[in-house]
């Protein structure tokens, strides 16, 4: 007796699975997000936070997310497991941002001094804010690949394995790159005065 194998889900096999009415049968995993719009409504705040971690400008982060969501929309019918959509969008965010870095003709430089706020801040969060700003400036000085890994590991709180999967590299590569990045952050002159 010979076993019959189910067809691999390619565009050709998907075409073959269309019903007589011309519509596709629902994928079992698609019940999590029945439509692209419902997915965006549910996950946009989290995805925007990821985009903001990859670029310093909030407007650029919104544009970056829009581009990644456009790519996701185009591929919506090809994504079999809708439980993995966040990973797909994160990958699109990173790929889009990497393409932007490569195409950039004018270097961007971090300001040495931030402008004074126009209104006084209630309480005294200055020390915490100074540490946050110094840390972010130090992170933006890292090479693009190390920066992406640090953002995914420590801002997005992904494990080493999840970070490796999103970036398409080995866990060992993530470990060594993050270790080098942390070494650079420890040596950053802006962070030396803030360490106790």
Structure description:
It is globular, with a radius of gyration of 21 Å. The chain contains 8 helices and no strands. Residues 1-30 have low confidence and may be disordered. The chain is an all-alpha fold and 196 residues long.
Can you give me a brief rundown of this structure?
With 196 residues, this protein is an all-alpha fold. Helices cover 58% and strands 0% of the residues. Helix 2 packs across helix 4 (85-103) and helix 7 packs across helix 8 (171-187).
| Order of H and E elements | HHHHHHHH
Count of extended strands: 0
Give the DSSP E fraction (strand runs of 2 or more residues). under 5%
| Fraction of residues in H or I helices | 55-70%
Oligomer: single chain
The major beta sheet can be summarized as: none
Number of helices: 8
Overall outline: globular
Instruction: State the separation between the terminal residues, measured CA to CA.
Output: 72 Å
Give the radius of gyration.
21 Å
Indicate the structural class.
mainly alpha
What is the mean pLDDT? 75
Report the uncertain regions: 1-30
Keywords, please?
single chain, 196 residues, mainly alpha, disordered N terminus
Tell me the layout of helices and strands:
Elements: H1 11-16, H2 36-54, H3 58-75, H4 85-103, H5 126-140, H6 144-155, H7 160-167, H8 171-187
Helix pairs in contact: 2-3, 2-4, 3-4, 6-8, 7-8
